[in-house]
Every structure is written in C-alpha cells, then in structure tokens.
Amino acid sequence: VLGTTGAFLYVTQIQNSPPDQLPSDPKKPTLVVLGSGWGATSFLKQLDTEEFNVVVISPRNYFLFTPLLPSVTVGTLEPRSIIQPTRYITRHKKRKVDVYEAEAQEVDPVKKTVTFQDLSDVRGSAGSVTLNYDYLVYAVGCENQTFGIKGVNEHACFLKELSDADKVRTKLMDCIETAAFKDQPQDEIDRLMHMVVVGGGPTGVEYAGELHDFLIDDLKKWYPEVADRLRITLIEALPNVLPAFSKQLIQYTESTFAENKIDVLTRTMVKDVKENAVVVQDANKQMREIPYGLLVWATGNTSRQITRDLMTKLATTQTQRRGLMVDDYLSMLGADGVYAVGDCTATSYAPTAQVASQQGMYLAGIFQKLGQKAKYERQLSELRAQNASPEEIEATVKKLNRSAKLTPFHYSHQGSLAYIGSEKAIADLPLFNGNVASGGGAAMLFWRSAYISTLYSVRNRTLVLADWLKVKIFGR
Ligand code: NAD
Question: How far is the CA of 10 from the centre of ligand 1 (A)?
Fold first, then answer.
C-alpha cells in the first residue's frame, strides 16, 4: 500500500512540475489551434510541438467532458469533476505553447490571419489582436440551434456549456422552492413543477433521465409537500425519440420513460416560447400552450457566426450550409494551411464527440508528418551544403518521401451510449460484424465504465468516481 501511495504521489509530483520546455522559435511555422473542445483537445494531447510554435485560442481555458454535463444540472456530478484545464495538457509539451482565453472573431484565409479578443478582460481595454498563422486547426464546434423560434434565447436554458448546467440547476431549485412557498395557488404550483425538455435527441433524453432520478432519490425526501406534483415532459417533433438509435432501444427508452412517468410528446413541434409557456403544434396541426417552470432546449446545433463568415469568404469552394467542407485528410477546401475537425465540419459522419476526438488524433498524426518533413528537408539542404555522400543524401530523401505519404482519415465507430434514468442506459454497439443493442443495468455499468475510461485524466476519473459514491451515500 505504501509503495502504491508513494508511486502515486511521485507521479503526481512529476505531473505538477512543468518540464523545461523549448522556447518559441521564429524559424518554425506558427500553428494556431482554435477551440478547446473534443477535436482541439484530442489534437493537442497527441501533438508533437517540437517543429511548431503552437498558439491555442479558445473562449474557455478548459476542456469540458460534455457527455456528463446533464449530471451536473441536478448535482450528481460537481462541475470541476468534468473539466480539464487546457494548460494541464500544454505544460507537458516539448516546446512552449501559448494559450489565450479569447474568442476568435475572424479568420482571413487569404492573408492567413486570425483576429481574436479577450472577452472577459476585466479592464475592458484589450482590443482585438491579429496573428499570422502558417497552419490553422479550426475546431470551434457549433452553437445551439434555435431555428429562429421566438423567445428561446430569452426564456429557455441550453445544455452546452458548464454555465448552462449551473443556470439549469439554479432555475430548477428556484422553481421548486417557489412552488413550496407559503400559500402558492394550485395552478401556479403545477406550472412551476412542470419541467419541459424540447428535443428528443441524446441530450434531451439524458437530461430527462437525470431529472427523474433527482425527483425519486432526493426531491421526495426534501420537498414531500410538492415532490409529487413534479412532471417531466419531453417534446419531440419527429415520430420517436433518439432517431439515431436502433428501434429496439427507442422502444426500450420510451417504455422506461412511461414507467418513470416522463411524458413523451412525439410529432409535436414547439413553435413559440413565452415566458411561462411553450406553444406547440401537434400531429393534427392543433396549436396549444403548455405551461412550464423550467424549459430546457436541446434541439441540436448549428454553425457559429465565425464559421458562416469563413464560408462566405470562400463561397466558390465552401458550398455546404451545414459546415466546413474538408478533404479526406481534413484539410479545408479552398483554404491553404487550414484543417478543420469536429462539429464545425460537414462530413458524412454524425456531429459527435467520438468523431471529433478521432479527427483530432488523426490530425496530430498529420502534423507529426509535416514536422518530420520539415526536419528532413532541413537535413537534406545541410547535407547538400556539406557535400555529403550520395548514400547519406539518398537515405534522407527516402525518409522525406515517407513523411510525405499520408493515409486518409478513417472513422471507427465504437457505438452509441445514452443514460435514460433509474440506473438504466442504452448502448448501440457495433460488435461481431453487426449491431448489438442493449438496455438496462448491464448497459448502465458499461456506460459508467466507458465514460470513466474516456475521461482525459486520472484526476477527472477520481473526481467523477468520488461524486458517484457521494450520491450513493449522501444523496445529491
Ligand atoms: P439532436 O440533433 O440529436 O436532437 C435534437 C432533436 O430535437 C431532434 O430529434 C429534432 O427533431 C428535435 N427538434 C428540433 N426542433 C424541434 C422543435 N421545435 N420542437 C420539438 N422538437 C424539435 O441534438 P442533441 O441531442 O443535442 O445532440 C447533438 C449531437 O450530439 C448529435 O449528433 C448527438 O448524437 C450527439 N450527442 C450524443 C450523445 C450520446 O451519444 N450520449 C449525447 C449528447 C449528444
């Protein structure tokens, strides 16, 4: 035990002491990375920085493990358990990496520049800064899709950022406290205790599941006077929830929700959002109002403004509205030196964390080759200047040619998982040359272990495990 503890402390010590990093080198190309999400972080983790001066620009200086975000909204997990500071990764790199917490506002693909601004600048005096890049890794993700529906931005909560989870948590507790307040009218209690989730994709389904657990495990004990009045409604425009999952798992989810008294309104589309009610249109084209206390909006994603601007600048080559078009090597069409990964791209893959992280890893391999190529080119010109032997030159030429050979990106689907509440999860797994669909407690164990192993650091794994244990013992 002492040995293990000692080794653990030693490793922690090494991790905490930044190594001596090489300083930036004006002779090396500048590689700017935009973003700190799945694509950018998996890229940074794998990247060999020796041959580049790397600059990371992102409005948040940490990576957020988004699949576990719904768990933060009800206090199953603490916010810090699912984030990893970007500097945790960059401080171990061979060459120093500059990290700026700032929002990129414009990319000029002709001049090869990025303009960015520190939005949280406390003095408010920092203007925007423009930086030249040789290579740009564009991994800015997406923003919430509202379809231009009135009132969404004003009245609904999203589930994308850590601050969203905090907002949902505060709003949820405010609704319950107000419902439990002295002498509230009955219909007001019903409204406040009605939690509406719009969008039956994985985000909406997982949130509804977490909310149900919170009700059963905790609310009933804390607020016995109003807990029974809590209702959860999931609204989905399509004929069923989770269209990307197999039929069997869709049915399993819908029947679990029915058992858990989560109302699922399918073929129902939200048309308008008012302060205390959503206006929906049902399958018979009938319009009606549904009063709510908390409204969570999870209807998917759309391109960010900076991405739309970039597409406009390259309108002749960038012809997809969905996102940036890239070739098989993730190089952006029509933009020299720009690579794009993740949700901001329009590829044949679904915009998932899994795709983005595999793309990031793949791209780090491309940059490894680019770095090697630059190194061998340098060596070759030195050898020629020194009149080296033809054998030596030929050996270096061979290495150079090898470094120029690239294999196209190939996505390997590891399956889809979603938590649906009451200790049940669903898993669509591509095994044995076919798809295996599984739902229930075993899938839940699989869900937990898959997420624990996907978390990026020992610190995050420890914190998440400790949070789960905490909930089991003390509740939320
Ligand atoms: P989504 O796009 O998967 O689902 C949004 C849903 O909202 C759609 O089914 C759509 O029909 C519905 N919708 C849109 N407008 C509506 C309206 N006005 N009224 C009612 N319903 C409406 O969105 P998501 O769940 O945020 O997921 C985004 C991406 O992230 C997807 O690719 C998803 O697979 C991925 N994701 C995966 C997981 C997981 O695997 N566990 C978790 C979260 C997200």
Answer: 44
Residue 43 CA to residue 30 CA, distance in Å, equals 16
* Euclidean distance between CA atoms 404 and 401, whole angstroms: 5
Do residue 138 and residue 169 come from a single domain? no
**Per-residue model confidence as pLDDT tens digits over 164-210:** 999 999 999 999 999 999 999 999 999 999 999 999 999 999 999 99
Q: How far is the CA of 338 from the centre of ligand 1 (A)?
A: 29
Ligand 1 center to 343 CA (angstroms): 13
165 and 252 both lie in a single domain: yes
Q: Which of 397, 427, 454 is the last residue of a domain?
A: 397
The domain that contains 174 carries what CATH number? Answer: 3.50.50.100
Please state the pTM of the whole predicted model. 0.93
What's the domain range around 341? 2-144+302-397
H-state helical runs in 218-269:
220-222, 247-259
DSSP 123: S
Predicted confidence (pLDDT) per residue in 78-103, tens digit? 999 999 999 999 999 999 999 999 99
Ligand 1 pocket, mutate which of 144, 155, 158, 236 (most atoms under 8 A from CB): 236
